Structures are given as C-alpha cells and as structure tokens.
Amino acid sequence: MNPEMIEKIWERCGGKCECVKAAHNHPGGKCNAEIVKEMLDKSEVGGWKICKMFVAGGDNINAYTVYCNECYRQLPSVLHKEDRFGA
Ligand SMILES: [Zn+2]
Ligand SMILES: [Zn+2]
C-alpha cells in the first residue's frame, strides 16, 4: 500500500475507528475511538491498523477499513495476515 492510499483512507476515517462489528457492542453501532495518524501500526494509545476487507481490493480504498487497536485485537486472526502496512 502506498502512502497516498494511506492518506486517503486516513481522510475518510476522520481520525476515528471505523469498526462496525456487532460483536464488539459499540454504542450506536460504530466504535469511533479516536486514533492518531502518526500511530499507524503502533501498539500504544492512539494506534490503529488498516485491514483489507476483500482480496481483490487493489487500490480501491473502500476495500480497507480502519481499526483502533482495541477492535483490531478482537478481529478474527484471518484478517491479521496481510495488513501490515507500516507508517
Ligand atoms: Zn475501534
Ligand atoms: Zn470494534
């Protein structure tokens, strides 16, 4: 993933976790936890991850979802393979 895409995905998420997993019981249905741009792929507070939602995503940013660390930890491990993009 190139930095330009990360930029676009970051703009879309507005600095908030995009998780809508029902299993996480987020109030209002969406996590919205605040994340920090510089903290991509970091495990400290404000850290976040970009997960690819379907394999043939290419450079379609809609194929990716932003997760805070808290939500990321709760995702099925199958999603943890190909999503190490680094900052
Ligand atoms: Zn979250
Ligand atoms: Zn969540």
List the helices and strands and how they pair.
Layout: H1 3-13, E1 48-52, E2 64-68, H2 69-74
If you had to describe this structure to a student in words, what would you say it looks like?
This protein has one domain. It is 20% helix and 11% strand. It contains 2 helices and 2 strands, in the order αββα. The mean pLDDT is 88. Bound molecules: zinc ion (2 copies). One zinc ion is lined by residues 19, 21, 24, 26, 31, 71. One zinc ion binds at residues 17, 19, 31, 33, 67-68, 70-71.
Short précis:
The protein is of the alpha+beta class. The chain has helices at residues 3-13, 69-74; strands at residues 48-52, 64-68.
Total helical elements: 2
The percent range for strand residues is 5-15%
Largest sheet: 2 strands, antiparallel
Number of domains: 1
Radius of gyration: 12 Å
Shape: globular
Helix and strand sequence? HEEH
Tell me the structural class.
Answer: alpha+beta
- Poorly predicted parts: none
Helix fraction bin: 10-25%
Bound ligand species: zinc ion
CA-CA gap between termini: 10 Å
Total strands? 2
What would the average pLDDT be, to the nearest integer? 88
Placed side by side, the strands forming the largest sheet appear as 1-2
What keywords describe this structure?
single chain; 87 residues; alpha+beta; two-stranded antiparallel ribbon; 2 strands; 11% strand; globular; binds zinc ion
